[in-house]
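Worked problem 6 (solution included).
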Amino acid sequence: MDETTFNREQNRLVVASLMILALAAIAAMLIFTRSVMIPFVLAIFAAIVVSPVQDFLVLKCKCPRWLGALAALLVVFGGLFILGIPVMAAVNTAVMQISDYSENSAWLLDRLDTRMEQWGLDQLDTDVIGREFQAQLPSIATHTLGTATGLVSNVFLILIFLVFLLSGRDSHNTSKGLYAEFESTTRRYLATKLVISLVTGILVWAILAALGMQMAIVFGALAFLLNFIPSIGSVIATFLPLPIAVSQFYDPETQLYNYWMIAAVVVLPGAVQVIIGNVIEPKLIGRGMALHPVAVLLALSFWGLLWGVMGMVLAVPITATIRSVLIRFDTTRYLGDIMAGELPSG
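Solution. The predicted structure is:
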């Protein structure tokens, strides 16, 4: 090995070591500041998506900056309202159906009790199960209330950050270079992902409703939300209706399952997820998010550990942004190439 190659390998090792240390320090900071950083990052992405509205009004229509910021903010409110209607309908449907399934749970417990008796196992004490469930209801209600309160506070923080980001944006100062690339790529990814997720949710709802599936709108809304999590979200959304389908398509009189309907509940929405996720979505998004599938899974794991479910939603655009920064510098370009699945040749 000549001296030039040795120095190059040594530099790469030093850079990689420093990046690992920096990554550990940044991860600790992100965990400590997650309650503020998550709303801030979401506000940045929301501002990127709606900023063309503000730029159009300021540059083309010659409107003042505050009016453009107000219009962009109204677009955000309108989008939240439109998306919130089916979500609230799904929540209302779920609440109404819970009572039905609680009434139907008796015969499920009886059936399980009979099976355990046939297998020579101890029978279930349904009274104990009922008392335990009732004892857990206060904690479930408290947890649900806390989650709802946290969600409202996060939305409030996002809107505050968004107001300042939009009001401080100068449409006349056209962004160039790395930030312009980041803004364009992120806007295209988020807008495309939003449309694709909406189409996926509608198709899943329509298929399940056509099959006569209960809570079809709930699973359609979940398919819309989970589609923002690459790879894993679509798998979870596909199998979520399975327990309800097993319960719904069972006839207690004949003690027979309708296996064709149960299979259709999983296979047909799964086919929609596969076609949209593996055929349509890559063509629409293009090479802007050039990340290897392994890099995507590692990013999902990393950001999921840091920020939970919201970190998994933001994993791809954040990781793609990091890769765009890495390939700008000679000392870190090979790391960006590895994230895209391109191994260094020498």
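Discussion: The chain has a mean pLDDT of 76.
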